[in-house]
């Protein structure tokens, strides 16, 4: 298959690119390197630097290669930043998608796998979230992703664009070969931040809020291994190409860990004490997000292999200890 991966130099996109090329697909990555790294695009994928909003560039790419499928990962994805600058999120995320869909349509490329998020659900009273749970995003990031989902769904109705939307819960870990991993500047995600303490880069962790209505008062999230997430994308592609109906799937582990439990697990794994301070709640944070992954397991036959927290921490730890500066200084 000829596959365009928009945002394929980022943390999640690069893991999908690797699995696609390992499965002998021909992959072209378009990424503006705003948060991604050219070094994260593993060979033999082709890397092209550019913005998804650049329709002239998209047209050039689509006229040179007849793509079978488009994967779309390029988006701003920080909850905190989105609360401070919502227009940035609506502009980059939503208008980037519109440009991509326009050009896909012009070139009659009708298949898209879209990277969405559990942030579309917001605060819900449902303990386990299914794809039918009401979406009430609590921050502009989640709202922008929900808008993008809806745009894709209307393009399905109007232009017969076929889609799978994957709503990721909290993605963590790194490729097991240790070649690619997570490298954000600044890092805002919990697991890599906690690892910075035993790595000697940070002295303590601030827990954002201890008065949530959860088991220990700290926020609860569902952590899924990035390698298992990548597998879900390949299954989603095969599903669409086999002529199945467009749909939405949650991708999570169906287990909730509190922020405190994550810190304790890293302490146990690294055998190092991680000092904790309690701060105020981070604006826009839902109290608990736990997936039901029943649908993706039943429909796509997705079977996550790395479901215990230790295997996530282990792969992330190996990546960070072997790449103390992330991709910096790499050839
Ligand atoms: N968190 C925290 N301290 C940190 C980073 C994150 O307490 O330094 C909490 C955050 O409030 C959230 C959870 O950890 O409830 C997971 O945060 P992350 O940014 O990794 O993912 P999110 O669920 O926001 O997408």
UniProtKB/TrEMBL annotation:
Keyword NAD among UniProt keywords: yes
Catalysed reaction equations from the record: UDP-alpha-D-glucose = UDP-alpha-D-galactose
Matches recorded under CDD domains: UDP_G4E_1_SDR_e
Catalytic EC class: isomerase
GO molecular function, one term: UDP-glucose 4-epimerase activity
Any single GO BP term: galactose catabolic process via UDP-galactose, Leloir pathway
Record's keyword terms, sorted: Carbohydrate metabolism, Galactose metabolism, Isomerase, NAD
UniProt xrefs under Pfam families: Epimerase (PF01370)
Protein's UniProt keywords contain Zinc: no
Pathway(s) annotated for this protein in UniProt: Carbohydrate metabolism; galactose metabolism
Stretches assigned to the NAD-dependent epimerase/dehydratase domain: 3-252
Top-level taxon: Bacteria
Cofactor requirement: NAD(+)
Subunit structure, as described in the record: Homodimer.
Family, as annotated: Belongs to the NAD(P)-dependent epimerase/dehydratase family.
NCBIfam families noted in UniProt: galE
Name of the protein in question: UDP-glucose 4-epimerase
Organism: Enterococcus caccae ATCC BAA-1240
């Amino acid at each position: 298959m000829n596959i365009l991966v928009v945002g394929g130099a980022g943390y999640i996109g690069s893991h999908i690119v690797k699995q696609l090329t390992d499965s002998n697909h021909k992959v072209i990555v378009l990424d503006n390197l705003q948060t991604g790294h050219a070094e994260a695009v593993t060979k033999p994928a082709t890397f092209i630097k550019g913005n998804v909003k650049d329709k002239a560039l998209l047209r050039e790419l689509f006229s040179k290669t007849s793509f079978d499928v488009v994967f779309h990962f390029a988006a701003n994805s920080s909850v905190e930043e989105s609360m401070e600058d919502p227009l940035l999120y609506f502009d980059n995320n939503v208008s980037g998608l519109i440009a991509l869909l326009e050009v896909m349509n012009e070139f009659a490329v009708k298949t898209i796998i879209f990277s969405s998020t559990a942030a579309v659900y917001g605060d819900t009273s449902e303990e386990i979230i299914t794809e039918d749970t009401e979406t009430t995003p609590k921050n502009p990031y989640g709202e922008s992703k929900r808008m993008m989902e809806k745009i894709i769904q209307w393009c399905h109705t109007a232009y017969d664009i076929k889609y799978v939307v994957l709503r990721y819960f909290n993605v963590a870990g790194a490729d097991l070969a240790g070649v690619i991993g997570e490298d954000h500047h600044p890092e805002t995600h919990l697991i890599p931040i906690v690892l910075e303490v035993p790595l000697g880069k940070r002295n303590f962790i601030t827990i954002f809020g201890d008065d949530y209505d959860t088991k220990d008062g700290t926020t609860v999230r569902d952590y899924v291994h990035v390698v298992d997430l990548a597998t879900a994308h390949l299954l989603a592609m095969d599903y669409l190409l086999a002529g199945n109906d467009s749909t939405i799937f949650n991708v999570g582990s169906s287990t909730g860990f509190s922020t405190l439990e994550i810190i304790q697990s890293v302490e146990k794994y690294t055998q190092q004490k991680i000092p904790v301070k309690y701060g105020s709640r981070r604006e826009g944070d839902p109290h608990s997000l736990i997936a039901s992954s029943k649908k993706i397991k039943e429909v796509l036959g997705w079977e996550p292999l790395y479901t215990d927290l230790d295997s996530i921490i282990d792969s992330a730890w190996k990546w960070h200890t072997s790449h103390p500066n992330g991709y910096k200084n790499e050839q």
